[in-house]
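Let us work through a complete example step by step.
Step 1: write down the sequence.
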Amino acid sequence: MSAVLGRVAASEAAVVVMPAPGLGTARRRFRREHVGPVLLTLIAFAYLALVLLVPLAAVFIEALRKGWAYYWNSINEPDAQAAIRLTLLAAGIAVPLNLVFGVAAAWAVAKFDFRGKALFITLIDLPFSVSPVVAGLAYVLVFGLQGWLGPWLAEHDIKLIFAVPGIVLATVFVTLPFVARELIPLMQAQGREEEEAAVVLGANGWQIFSRITLPNIRWGLLYGVILCNARAMGEFGAVSVVSGHIRGLTNTLPLHVEILYNEYNSAAAFACASLLALLALVTLVIKSLVEGRFQKENA
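Step 2: predict the structure and record it as tokens.
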């Protein structure tokens, strides 16, 4: 018994006097545990630099390769100005239309139950899954001179394809889901309790929307409008099909860049492309600010 107690005491003494891991060991263990995340972060930044930052920098470098005077003349010549105006016009019409539709669609989906809701949501998402080129061809098939409604439109002197209305229609189609898809999950998460309480207190539909719903969704709404506007100004595929590429008349800024590049006027093409790149950067900054404000209010 005394021998057993002696061994226990000896082991306890050994445990007591066992030295703690040194500072160097702790540092090596910390490095081993964090080298993986640090390495992955560096790889991600290197990939983003290669795919995004280097091409973006190349656009501005090529745009200014012949100097500021040439850059200014490239974006100030009549065809470029017409393309800029048409781009702003198409976005200026498409974004408000999709704003109204997106709010109404999100309100209907989030606040009411009705037959065909799943089909309705699927139709909202359709522009995400359909190629913009296919959408443009569909518009040509329906509204073109040889299309289903083409003869009737021609008889009434209405021109949609190869004209500004067709460009606006194509832009509306490709940007349709952005506001609605931003608001639907937000409204669903907020529930219906506040609106139902307002109805019980005698509020009408406009009062409920303006005083309860709109303040709750304002940052999400602004976020969706920003994305919708950026997509509208940068759209190429669907607009390219329905525009007809009539220089100075039906060319948006992305189409004008393509024409200049195909004519081997790369400096002017990059000068006009830099405007779209600047738009993307400004949109990214505004998007980050709105997203941060939105997350702060919902924290």
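Step 3: interpret the result. The first helix runs from residue 2 to 17.
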